[in-house]
Amino acid sequence: MTLAHDAIHWDCNLQSTLPGRWLDARADEAALALATTRALRQYGFALVRGLDPDPGPTERDRVAPRLNRFGAALGTIIRQNRQGSLLEDIRDFSDTDAFDNRGYRSPGELSLHTDPPSMLVLHCLRPARSGGDNTLVNVQAMHGHMARHHPELLRELERGFRYWIPSETEAGAGEASRWRRPVLMVRDGLVSCVYYRPYIEMAAQAAGEPLSPLAVRALDTYDGLAGDARFQIQLRLAAGDTMVLHNRAVLHARGAYEDWPDASRRRHLLRLWI
Question: Residue 101: is it exposed, middle or buried by C-beta count within 10 angstroms (0-12/13-18/19+)?
């Protein structure tokens, strides 16, 4: 699914308004989907509270049907891996499975990036003991800054890079894509982003095509802007909270977290790709 969006103009000042931007999931499901879509078009994200009416830690099987209905009302739910998972568990598996000592299945920091689908839904069953905050970055605001101050670097990002395609069955294996994928692209005045720098660097190494000094400067500048508080907001999901992201309009990151020793209390989120 490709979700249209309007020109998105928010900056860090949006942070102070977040408490009033939560959508109430007790509304009619069709009305909730419409309100969510409007928020996505305007801001690139939507915040929903109450998909599970229990304000405490929730159980997967209880909330999954409602979460799936919510996702289906927004678009077509797609599989997230070769196994065909439609609803993926986001938690720390690094101490039980060596293959999963990576990314979203470990407690380490996740740098700013986009995911493959057009839309991403994250529902929090249980938060971590501490940490795990989410950072959202306005892509259109960064693009405007680069167009004004670094046009030659912006052109390099628009030219694009080969991407690493990881193996879904063998840890560390994969290959470089044959095509170049733009980091930033503009259509009808709207900015779209696809970005995960480690995959750009891994593809360059695998293909034997080192990144040029200009490319490195462009990526460094983009990372620097993405880390600039002027373009960011931060939030932490509590049990029962849901965050929906327009995956081409915002970058997202997750801070490292400390979990509970008791496995039954560990941070646990559910993810849909749409």
Answer: middle
CB within 8 A of 61, min separation 6: which ones? Answer: none
Residues 6 or more apart whose Cβ sits within 8 Å of residue 84: none
22, two tokens = 């939560």
Residue with tokens 């799936």: 68
Residue 219 to residue 209: CA distance in whole angstroms? 16
Instruction: Output b/e per residue, 212-226; b: 16+ Cβ within 10 A.
Output: eeebeebbebbeebb
CA 176, 180, 185, 188 dihedral sign is negative
Residue 37 backbone phi and psi in degrees, to 5? -60, -40
Distance CA 35, CA 24 (A): 10
Specify the fold of 12-128+235-273.
Answer: Double-stranded beta-helix (3.60.130)
Which tokens hold the place of 23?
């959508």
User: How does pLDDT run across 213-264, given as a tens digit for each residue?
Assistant: 999 999 999 999 999 999 999 999 999 999 999 999 999 999 998 888 888 8
- The answer to whether the predicted template modeling score (pTM) of the entire model surpasses 0.70 is yes
- Give the N- to C-terminal CA distance of the chain in Å, as an integer: 7
Give the H or E element holding residue 179. Answer: strand 174-181
Residue 235 near residue 134, CB atoms below 8 Å: yes
Q: At what angle do helices 213-226 and 151-159 cross, to 10 degrees?
A: 100
Beta bridge partners of 176: 164
Could you give the residue range(s) of every CATH 3.60.130.10 domain in the chain? Answer: 12-128+235-273
